[in-house]
Fold:
Amino acid sequence: MAIITVASIKGGVGKSTLAIHIAAALQSQRLNATLIDTDIDQLSSQRFLNWRTTRLNGAAKAVLSLPEIEIDSGTHARIRFENMIRDAARAGDVIIDLPGSRSQLMEPALVRSQIVVTPINESFVDLDVIGSRDGTPGPLTESILQARQVRADQGLRPLRWTIIRNRLSTLYSRNAEAVDERLRRLAETFDFDIGPGLTERVVFRELHDEGLTLLDAMNDDNVRPTLSAVAARSELRAVMENLALPSRF
Structure:
């Protein structure tokens, strides 16, 4: 079973939305997926699940059906966290939603994962957490490199890291082209791949407010999907295929 961590050390890049939709895509294939929210300050994923439960009240059309898991920050948080990952991995795939900052749970999450997914916006501010113009590793990259070394020392298979450009604009801009150029240089230096991007779409915000995922809207026979939702589903499918995860939805 796969352990996937959605990680960045910058907030507002869409980590929780992406983590929720990866879990929803797995659930839509009747695969067991556990979503672990480690952001004890915001608990964005858990708040979404709580809101979803309230809004849907067990509606049959719901695709996402995940246990609510809360991480506390006590003395033995890391031990509980590692046990939680181990137990969840026995049942199926695990998606870990890390906070937008370094925390004591980042290192064990990265070491235990086979795949790390990092969403970024078309911004040099977002790129700085990965690496600077001169190729110096950013703070997130430093954590990834350390986790790769630990995994190598433990005889585990190499950690795969993929960057997903999120909230892409449909309009050409010099900034986006410059970001893309630096990102490709950093990919060669730090061994990550650049996955398919997700376009900025209002549909994600609208559905989130309803306690729904994109796949709920696409699987409701009483709702006619908008063109935006259809395009978003195609992009999400490409993300799942890039991660080599089931995507027949």
